[in-house]
Design brief:
By secondary structure, the protein is an alpha+beta fold. The chain is built from two helices and ten strands. The chain has a three-stranded antiparallel beta sheet with strand order 3-9-8, with no helix packed on it.
């Protein structure tokens, strides 16, 4: 598949189609070293960004080191990721024109509670975060619980 990396309006650099891509096409595999979540946490503890892709086993990640790692997030994507037998592929979910940036919904699901993982995709349906809708709802509920506990304690720290 012919794709190229260049500057992106969404974030830093992105991947762009150099020829038409039909809906349902397997575009690229997300490759790189396999790490345990613990190894990745230690390796990237203070890193502002990573190219980690969490695998469905919940215990391992791929530390992206190829073109696929430059595919940006969008709340209105033209691609999706699919894990098949421990390998991750990026597939087109609609026809893509030459010159169009490839994107998929990262649907992030973990991280620090105060980390908003802001989204800059600019889509009409942008949710403002790369976190999944489910994760955002969970975080909102946690914030409300925390605020209610603080209010019920009169602002005093509970022990």
């Amino acid at each position: 598949m012919s794709i190229v990396i260049r500057r992106s309006k969404i974030h830093a650099h992105g991947c762009y189609a150099t020829q038409p891509i039909s809906k349902g096409t397997r575009i690229v595999e997300y490759t790189g070293p396999r790490l345990t979540v613990k190894q990745a946490d230690e390796l990237y503890q203070d890193a502002p960004s990573t190219y980690l892709y969490g695998l469905s086993d919940g215990e391992h990640v791929i530390d992206g080191d190829n073109t696929a790692a430059f595919i940006n997030h969008s709340c209105d994507p033209n691609c999706e990721s699919d894990e098949i037998d421990g390998r991750v592929y990026i597939l087109s979910i609609r026809d893509i024109r030459p010159g169009e940036e490839l994107t998929y919904d990262y649907s992030l699901y973990d991280g620090e509670l105060d980390d908003q993982a802001p989204c800059w995709c600019g889509a009409a349906n942008c949710r403002g975060s790369m976190y999944s809708e489910e994760e955002l709802a969970k975080r909102e509920a946690q914030s409300k619980k925390k605020a209610a506990r603080k209010k019920s304690s009169g602002g005093r720290k509970q022990s």
